Amino acid sequence: MAQPSIEARTLRAPGLALLAAILGIILLRAPLAVLDDQVNTLHYSVRGAVPPDTNIVVIYIDDAAVRVLGWPLRRNFHALMLSALAELKVRTIGVELMFEDPRTEYPEYDDLFARMLSVSPPAILTCYFDTLASQGGPNDSARSIAQAGTQFTYAAVDEPPQHGRGFHAPLRNFQTAAAGVGHVNFIGRGTVPLFVVEGSAIVPAFGLEIVRAFAGTDRGGLQSDGDEVTLKTRGQKLRWYTEEGGVTLNYPCALRGYTAYPFLEVLRAYDNARRDLPASIPVSSLRDKIVLIGVAAEGRGVVFDTPVDPRLPSIAMHATLVDNLLQSRLMRHAGLGLLIVLSVLTGVLCAAALLFLRSPWDKIGPLCVFLLLIGASYLLFAYQAFRLPVVSPVLVGLVTVAAAGMSRHRAMRQQVDVLSAEKASVLNTLHDREARLAMLERQLLDAQVDRPAAQTKELLEEIKKYKAEIRALTSRADDMEESTPGGDDIGVATFEGIVYHRNGPMRQPVEFVKKIASSDAPVLILGESGTGKELIARAIHRLSNRHEAPFIAVNCGALSETLLESELFGHEKGAFTGAVKEKPGRFELADGGTIFLDEIGEVSEGFQLKLLRVLQEGELERVGGTTTLKVKVRVLAATNKDLKERVKSKQFRDDLYYRLNVLTVSIPPLRERQEDISLLVEHFLAREGGALRVSRNVMEALRSHAWPGNVRELESTIRRGALLARAEQRTMLTVKDLTDELADAAAGMVPVQDQVLEMIRDLGFSRSAVTETAAALGGLNRGTVAEYLRGESLKTFVDQQYDLERAVKHLALSTDPAIHERVRKRYLEYLTNIIDGLDASQPWETARLALRSKSKNLPQRYHMYLEQCAEAHFRGVWRLP
């Protein structure tokens, strides 16, 4: 049965986690809503207070009124307030006080209050229910409500989903005298049922009834179909959407944010105004307003824990409902369907970011999704009065991110396990071959005298075969090992996008560019294709005094002479077919700045003369024009040709060459920048992202390549390898990700030390063997070959436990006594050099300092063998014969 792909295995876990998280949201919706309430409170804090509707005025009974007038206030004071408000011509009054019981000690005050209710502006009284339920049933108080006649009759309102139990209403004469009665019940935290049904009666919310009276609409103008409530007014239709018959308050501010006055202060100000005395409150401003009268005294009324005030008086809650209804800014909620869709989208985006984006965006992506969600939630809250839940989607996102991370880690772990198993198999085979090789070498060295020459030759051939197989296996093993970093913070340097080793060949041209950048003299940039000549040109421009002026680059080799002249000098309208309008040339566009003429060695001799005039005089004429234009431009030119040879062969004008060659920057080819290759590889891998690495074998192949395309070719090679590696969800580039040329070279690659030793063995360690080997290998000089030979000799000496004769036989790998003697002489020379200068009378840590000069040209890999040989002699392990 086929196994699912890595991609399928990677996506399966986040998908299952997403489904589980969505199920958890459905089951835990209520607890999560509590957390969303905390987020909503934070939204209110960030938004701050907003101005409430200016039609609303709150008159509150505070502690001072209770102290002066007593508690509860006698109804003659309420009658006095109604009389004052009637004289001040307010438009609607809402009294948030219960008048459920008669006052037997002052019955005349009840009559007075009822009389003022009937003659004052429309006044709305309050009632309440002991409990609310979503289903109705028998209720003893239903008949008492119905007996109120039309007071609770709303013919255009469908039966609401909320049913009341235990109705408490004002006295009958108060109900009859008032313009309406509304309930003051709340559902949960800040949710108001706009209608409550009890028996055959429908009771509106206190705030809704106030708005109806304020609009001057009779009860028939208030309509509801269960989901939408509309109120027909004189000039417009107000519409509010309900959720299960209720609406959620959108708090604009605390009580102090409203136009609010103390009860006693209003009465005093009214009295002063009647007597033309100064008043502390502008009572005349109450005209045509909605006045809400309620309690704000400590311990005398109900308070609510709200986002704008943890102890908001109930009168402010009703003022908030009136404000929301008038301004149509009731808070709306996302339904379960939208919540699930939003959660799924968040989870998918977070998982996709982690699984498919490159580093560091795979980690930044989920964070951006969360920030976008939180930002959208706040904007919808602040500007659309819409509560978008964030806790559930964020939790879903976190769950899917965790699942995706674990899935990716498991998939990578599986890849590592497969690679480790393959590597273990290769290493086991390698160890078997090395053991077989060691046995063959012992057979060759232990019985050389008695063995026939033909059999010895056959044994040598078998040894070579095993060595070739070991090299191939070692190459495969190295292709599974990560290459060590090529540089550190001390060695690596960057300059205007150029990465190089601070002690490498690029140091000199970079330092020279820094010196000449501020000059206005022309610069000739020499270098092979792909070495970064345009980068150098741009660096010169950015470091010059012209860096704020234009930098114009032109590839002279890509255009014919006619097109190049038009491109550089511009043309007049009608100068040639197709010249439908005048066009400024590149020199004009670069006026005051820098122009970069790439591949200058490719231009024709006729054009060279025209270019010379611009360089000498700063003058040019457009094609087809007669007007001489003056330009002041710094010219940077580049070529991959040998201009000196072209001058000698009369292909390039010598006067133009000397005009361009005032300052010269020579960029070394990549093959001469061995120290830079690993740094450039790391730089290009970092650009590709995803924490990509290269295997040891790949790095060796890259270092050994001639790079005819230079840095540009290296960059393309890394981009290609990164693309192929990511396609297979690998984080390490191997030989199969390279081009065919590089892959073939890597497959047949023989370490340079093995090449040197095998070739010198074939030459019998003769006097000229080092020179001939250097010539045959091409890229190495004689001194380098000699040092590799010295290093291999010291390594063999250490491997053979400092036994000179065994080391000679193993290094020579021959039965010829003459070869043994030549190898022995070299050994004596090397070992004598080691012990020369070692002072046995000093501690080893001091004596070993003399080895620094002896390891100067020795390849780094052999330094440890040099020190081991020296320390073994210092300890008396071996002596010269």
Q: How many helical elements?
A: 32
The average pLDDT value, as a whole number, equals: 84
β-strand percent reads 5-15%
The largest pleated sheet is described as:
7 strands, mixed
How would you sum up the global shape? elongated
Helix content: 40-55%
Ends apart, CA distance between termini:
70 Å
User: Which spans of ≥5 residues are poorly predicted at pLDDT below 50?
Assistant: 1-8, 140-144
Number of strands: 31
Overall number of structural domains: 6
Rounded radius of gyration (Å): 47 Å
Structural classification:
alpha/beta
Question: What does this molecule look like?
Answer:
It is built from 32 helices and 31 strands. It is an alpha/beta fold and 881 residues long. Mean pLDDT is 84; it is low at 1-8 and 140-144. The chain is elongated, with a radius of gyration of 47 Å. Helix 26 crosses helix 27 (769-777), helix 27 crosses helix 28 (782-799) and helix 28 (782-799) packs across helix 29 (804-812). It starts with 5 loop residues before the first helix and ends in a 7-residue tail after the last helix. Strand 26 (619-621) and strand 27 (628-630) form a beta hairpin. It folds into six domains: 6-48 and 336-412; 56-327, no CATH class; 426-478; 507-667, Rossmann fold (3-Layer(aba) Sandwich), CATH 3.40.50; 672-747, Helicase, Ruva Protein, domain 3 (Orthogonal Bundle), CATH 1.10.8; 752-874, no CATH class. The strands form eleven sheets. Strands 1, 2, 3, 4, 5, 13 and 14 form a seven-stranded mixed β-sheet that branches.
